Amino acid sequence: MRPLDPILSAYDRLVRSAGRIEPIALLLLRWWVAMAFWKAGVVKIEDPSGTAYLFNNEYHVPLLSPDVAAFLGTWIELITPWFLGLGLFTRLTAAFLFVYNIIAVISYPDLWPHGFWHGLVGDDFNDHKIWGMMLLVVIARGAGVLSIDGILNWWRSKAGQ
Predict the structure, then answer these.
(1) What share of the chain is helix, strand, coil (3-state, %, to 5)?
(2) Mean pLDDT of the region 128-140
């Protein structure tokens, strides 16, 4: 036995044990981001005149009229969180919300008062950066077993045996 074998063995056990929390971690990541988008959608639908004002005067969504952007933004934020939170079409939904998040940051210059590039490395729009990183993890790892996607994958693997 080599001198490092006990240490490496203990490390391997630790890594395997830590890997068991991945399904819960992915579930929490999905729910956290889903709740952020859901709450934003609820605020928009509860105050349509405020939403119209913001999209007509504050937000500058590229390629869309303010009214279309307000309508789409509201419904995107009310529908897609359910897909993400429940883990249905998860990677596709997370990728869509990742791009949507970028568009939200670009469309609202008040989020980056010190300039966009400074904001990327500074303290501007931290919530959006965190949501983006969380969504990237979900895109990379998928929904995990605690999801509709996970159940469907399990069911398909059983049906294929």
Answers:
(1) 80, 0, 20
(2) 96
